[in-house]
Amino acid sequence: MNDQPIGICDSGIGGLTVAKEIIRSLPNENIVYLGDTARVPYGVRDKETITKFAKDLIKFLISKNVKAIVVACNTISATCLPELQEISSVPIIGVIKPTVSEVVNNLKTKTIGVIGTRATVNSNNYELEIKKINNETQVFSQACPLLVPLAEEGFVDHPSTKIIVQEYLEIFKDKNIESLILGCTHYPILRNTIQEVVGENIKIIDPAKPVTSELTNILKTSGLLGNTDKPNRHFYFTDITPQTVKTVNIFFDNNSPGRLEKINLS
């Protein structure tokens, strides 16, 4: 057993959907979460800037003696995951490869939709990873930048959310997709509305579960699973405002996930 914490990082708040699933699946693990809320969003920045910021996150988590790191951010995973793995002394898991593996291996029609930030969609990373497994798979992608603020405001069932989702997802109407990957960790907050718009026949893929499964396998095979009776869950943010606290509570169903602390990466 190993009671070092699991590190989780994101450009901001969205990675909490992954953290929530990790806590649910691995309740006896210590957790250190870092969200770069002072410099969010990453999705509108260039590769050089995203890589620089992401390396700051990894270095901070390593300073906290974590045993593994989950990059709970599609933008970072799509942009610079190999660069982060090069500087890390512990395993680093992104959100894209575990998600793609689960989806492609269970496809029937070989047609997939992906929604995410502009940086994630423009990177074409999901399509590249999908075609590595099955080159015959068709991938249709759509950037949905307005869904992030809607999730953070808690506009889960708001009429405006449905209108915006309908506008974004119109592209998939005649594509006969079988699955839709939520390529941004904010989007599971809006899952019910997204499902309503695309229809019940399309499977919605939340990366949190395949990522958590991948993490669990790595911890098991490396002998790194923890067994803490009273786990410490520490949530760091580079900026904490009343809106930050509100959003964290929204993501955790109004149950406090643990201690929140502001830190300065510079």
Task: Give the SSE string.
Answer: EHEHEHEHEHHEHHEHEHEHE
The strands making up the biggest β-sheet line up spatially as: 4-3-1-2-9-10
Largest sheet: 6 strands, parallel
Task: Compute the number of helices.
Answer: 11
Q: Round the Cα radius of gyration to an integer and report it.
A: 18 Å
Helical amount: 40-55%
| Structural class by sheet pairing and helices | alpha/beta
Identify the overall geometry: globular
CATH class of the largest domain: Alpha Beta
Q: What fraction of the residues are assigned to beta strands by DSSP?
A: 15-25%
Assigned CATH architecture of the largest domain: 3-Layer(aba) Sandwich
Q: Gap between N and C termini, in Å?
A: 34 Å
Total domain count: 2
Q: How confident is the prediction overall: mean pLDDT? A: 93
Might you state the CATH topology name of the largest domain?
Answer: Rossmann fold
Can you tag this structure with a few keywords?
alpha/beta, 11 helices, Rossmann fold, four-stranded parallel β-sheet, 266 residues, six-stranded parallel β-sheet, globular, 10 strands
Could you please describe the fold and organization of this structure?
With about 270 residues, this protein is an alpha/beta fold. The chain has two domains: about 5-95 and about 210-260, Rossmann fold (3-Layer(aba) Sandwich), CATH 3.40.50; about 95-205, 3-Layer(aba) Sandwich (Rossmann fold). About 45% of the residues lie in helices and about 15% in strands. The chain contains eleven helices and ten strands. The strands form two sheets. A six-stranded parallel beta sheet has the order 4-3-1-2-9-10, sandwiched between helices. β3, α3 and β4 (about 90-95) form a beta-alpha-beta unit. α4 (about 95-105) packs across α6 (about 125-135). The longest helix has 17 residues, at about 45-65. The chain is globular, with a radius of gyration of 18 Å. The two termini are about 35 Å apart.
